[in-house]
Amino acid sequence: MNLDYKIERESEEEEEEPLSVYQNLIPSFLDSQGQKLSKELKMEGTVFTPCLEGMKNVKSEQGEMLTKPFLDLCKTILPVIDKFGAAMTLVKADIGGNISRLEKNYLSDPDKYKYLYTFVQGEIESKTAKGSSSCTNGLLWLTRAMDFLVELFRNLVAHQDWSMSQACGESYQKTLKKWHGWLASSTFSMALKLAPDRKKFMDVISGSGDIYADMERFCTEFGPFLQENHKFLASVGMDDMKAS
């Protein structure tokens, strides 16, 4: 018997064994990833479904705006904004930053800041409400950014022949533009030109539900919360601050 040949064959078999293990694992891995992707693609309801669910908890039994549920509701809108891509980078950053500011203060004393307008009332008393880093300023700009989104979704429902850029531009004109200075307005307008193709956007957010029905319901139910914020801020003289 050729011992050198035997040793060589055993060596080859030892080298081949790890490859055979990976070959067995690869189909299993790909199958699991395929199932995961399939589940993601088959989104239950639409991208608005979590938002619509979150609205049920925003107010107390006495009808007062609750801080944590309101901020949690605003967070559920961030995945919707993600679908716009680069066009909404500034909006997402603004919304995310203001949510974080309010949440940080809420977590410092959840009992004290249980109700949303407590932030503003405290800062009015301490004469810090007009500061650029105040919670009052954060709530105001969070509300304004949400005004823009509500108007945008209204436009998409009401004008189904409009391009995404047209819907975004019209919404900006009606909501945020009057509060922005020249630089902010120019930057924002440039970003909106990167709006995605409308059909592709609608396909991505539709899921298994009726996207236009959910979008309209979102505007109808979320809009009044924003109006209530504006009404309160106006009552304390804090609804007309412009970007610095």
Topology record:
Layout (H helix, E strand, L loop, with lengths): L2 H39 L7 H6 L12 H9 L2 H5 L6 H20 L9 H8 L9 H24 L5 H11 L7 H11 L5 H9 L4 H25 L9
Helix pairs in contact: 3-5, 5-7, 7-8, 7-11
Q: Write down the overall geometry.
A: globular
Mean pLDDT: 85
- Proportion in β-strands: under 5%
Largest sheet: none
The number of helices is: 11
> Roughly how many Å apart are the termini?
90 Å
Record field, number of beta strands: 0
Unreliable segments of 5+ consecutive residues:
2-42
Q: Specify Rg, calculated over alpha carbons.
A: 26 Å
Share of helical residues: 55-70%
Structural class, please? mainly alpha
Question: What is the H/E order?
Answer: HHHHHHHHHHH
Protein name: Glycolipid transfer protein domain-containing protein
GO cellular component, one term: cytosol
GO molecular function: ceramide 1-phosphate binding; ceramide 1-phosphate transfer activity
Keywords: Transport
Can you walk me through this structure?
The chain is mainly alpha-helical and 244 residues long. It is 68% helix and 0% strand. It has eleven helices and no strands. The protein has helices at residues 3-41, 49-54, 67-75, 78-82, 89-108, 118-125, 135-158, 164-174, 182-192, 198-206, 211-235. Helix 3 (67-75) runs antiparallel to helix 5 (89-108), helix 7 crosses helix 8 and helix 7 (135-158) packs antiparallel against helix 11. The longest helix is centred in the first third of the chain and has 39 residues, at 3-41. The model is unreliable at 2-42 (pLDDT under 50).
